[in-house]
Design goal:
Blueprint lengths: L2 E5 L5 H11 L6 H10 L4 E6 L2 E15 L2 E15 L8 H15 L4 E7 L3 H9 L3 E10 L2 E9 L4
Parallel strand pairs: 4-5
Antiparallel strand pairs: 1-2, 2-3, 3-4, 5-7, 6-7
């Protein structure tokens, strides 16, 4: 399995939409993907196999604030990750996460978080295998269910 990774380009949108629709009950609209790319282009990565887009991960960096005051540190946040169903269980999701974690480390981020559907035990196990721990819950995060918040410290290489 030979995967390559690169930043998202507008020409990728139709394939991203296909993967998104096949992966999620409530797929994001194209406009949101474009917004996230404009916001943090280096944190929207696509995975390719033989020139075909077969997965993606989207992240952002959030400044840590308490009581409205910056604490001069940032946290990575995974907004979305999806892999073409025929490419699952081949290590691509792990590689996508490793790639975005590298990007976070390069920007000095020490921790990464994400939300996952409470009922998605497969994804929760996947993230736990990557070193994430469950740290909380967001009630009604999804239209029909709660989200589990997961977090992982990033070691700087």
């Amino acid at each position: 399995m030979s995967f390559t990774f690169r930043p998202y380009e507008e020409k990728d949108q139709s394939k991203i939409n296909e993967i998104e629709a096949a992966s999620f009950k409530d797929p994001w609209p194209s406009s949101f993907f474009n917004y996230m790319h404009d916001k943090a282009p280096d944190l929207f990565l696509v995975a390719r196999e033989d020139e075909e887009i077969v997965g993606y991960v989207i992240g952002e960096i959030r400044e840590i604030m308490f009581s409205g005051l910056s604490h001069k540190s940032s946290m990575g946040h995974i907004l979305n990750i999806a892999v073409n169903s025929r490419c699952r269980n081949r290590g691509m999701g792990t590689r996508l996460m490793q790639e975005i974690e590298k990007k976070y480390r390069m920007r000095g981020v020490a921790r990464v978080t994400l939300e996952v559907r409470e009922s998605n035990t497969t994804a929760r196990s996947f993230y736990q295998g990557l070193g994430f721990s469950e740290i909380g819950r967001v009630r009604a995060y999804y239209p029909d269910e709660d989200a589990i918040i997961m977090s992982k410290p990033l070691e700087n290489d």
